[in-house]
Design a protein that fits this description.
single chain, mainly beta, Methylamine Dehydrogenase, Chain H, four-stranded antiparallel sheet
Length: 411
């Protein structure tokens, strides 16, 4: 007996949502990390005005995204914000952002224990409004912070190094503004952000320093009003930058830039359509490719109403798109942070207004903090099995008749 199976599709990998969780925070989640127990820690801030209550929070979940605890922080001013969080070597957490509780706006660093109880907090005032956007624990147990100082008519990037107790050891300032920092394999630091180009637009700005924060080199990547939000050192020693680039039609595309170890551009890729598309976070994945999170199709609907879809893109090692997936409903939904988890899945944090209750249903008024887990799974391949035949001649006759039938349909 002879039989054949015809495959009508090709095997590929797709993104499958495992779960999503919303948290009634009245704001957005900006940073997420998987913890040692395979749960998640994420942080952000509320945009709901509640005098006397801290506007910044940490939320700890189990492996399935169920909340284990929530802690709030800050002084009398409810507009304090947390922008970045990391689990520390002792099992606790460090987060950084901005506090208005001591003046016009200071860089804020808070250390907690494993249960989220505050151990200490530090604020750093450089004059004007100072904000921190990223923090990492360094190899010797201290912390590296990057942010910006907004003075009178000027803006500068700040790099701050502290000891394990948050005491400042040194700081460096640079022209431009900084959004993300990572310690590099040589114990120096890589910083990404933006810099003004002759007052006519923004360039992506990449800076490499040594372990003391002294600049070793810097690179500017020109475009029409471009911004970088995230950088990661790659397995080959180079760097991957994620951000966005503007066109002259008021739209934006997500932008990836791959550099060598000295910051020289090797290639770039853009992703998006005719609307406003933004890459907010990038990580290199176990297979050498990249996972990028952000938002796509942002539209302003009048007043303070915005619509967008949260967006996840997976590429190969050369930046070629393997798949993409959008998340959310009819509101404003966006991802701010992504990380590959220990089992090869992806965890994203951001904000949703599609699943928000009450009146605070716009990006500007504050929706809900949002956590989404996604796995990669093989796409279902459709097959068609034809009947069994007694002989090879009968099978060949069937194939000939099938071809004649298809030719007649085409004619």
């Amino acid at each position: 007996m002879l039989s054949m199976i015809f495959t009508t599709g090709s095997a590929s990998v797709i993104a499958v949502e495992q779960w999503n969780r919303t948290f009634d925070s009245g704001g957005q989640a900006l940073s997420v990390q998987q913890t040692e127990d395979n749960g998640y820690i994420f942080t952000g801030y509320t945009t709901r005005y509640n005098p006397g209550s801290g506007g910044t929070w940490l939320i700890k979940t189990d492996i399935d995204g169920n909340m284990l605890w929530k802690k709030t922080y800050g002084g009398w001013n409810p507009t304090d914000e947390a922008h970045s969080v990391q689990q520390t070597m002792d099992g606790g957490y460090i987060f950084t952002g901005i506090t208005y509780s001591h003046g016009a706006g200071d860089i804020w660093l808070v250390k907690t224990d494993a249960a989220g109880n505050e151990i200490w907090n530090r604020n750093f005032d450089f004059g004007g409004v100072d904000t921190a956007n990223s923090v990492k624990q360094t190899g010797e147990g201290g912390y590296i912070i990057v942010g910006s100082n907004h003075g009178s008519g000027s803006e500068g990037a700040l790099l701050i190094k502290t000891d394990a107790n948050g005491n400042q050891q040194w700081n460096k300032s640079f022209e431009g503004f900084a959004n993300y920092v990572q310690q590099t394999s040589d114990d120096g630091y890589i910083i990404v952000g933006g810099t003004m180009r002759e007052g006519i637009g923004l360039d992506v700005w990449l800076v490499k320093t040594n372990t003391s924060g002294n600049k070793q080199w810097e690179k500017a990547f020109k475009g029409n009003d471009v911004i970088a939000r995230s950088v990661v050192q790659t397995k080959d020693g180079g760097y991957m930058i994620a951000g966005w680039i503007s066109s002259f039609t008021s739209s934006y595309d997500a932008w990836l830039i791959k550099t060598d170890v000295n910051g020289n551009k090797e290639w770039e890729k853009t992703f998006g359509g005719t609307g406003r598309d933004f890459a907010q976070s990038v990580q290199q994945t176990e297979d050498g490719g990249y996972i990028i999170a952000g938002l796509t199709g942002e539209e302003f609907k009048g007043g303070d109403t915005v619509e967008a879809k949260a967006w996840l893109i997976k590429t190969d090692i050369e930046g070629n798109k393997k798949w993409e997936k959008t998340f959310g409903g009819d509101g404003d939904d966006r991802f701010s942070s992504v990380q590959q988890t220990s089992n090869g899945s992806y965890i994203m944090a951001g904000q949703t207004t599609s699943y928000s209750a009450g009146a605070n249903v716009s990006f500007f008024k504050g929706g809900n903090a949002w956590l989404v887990k996604v796995s990669e799974e093989p796409e279902v391949v459709k097959t068609k099995k034809i009947p069994a035949f007694e002989s090879l001649e009968a099978l060949l006759l069937f194939i000939i008749l099938l071809k004649i039938k298809r030719m007649r349909k085409v004619a």
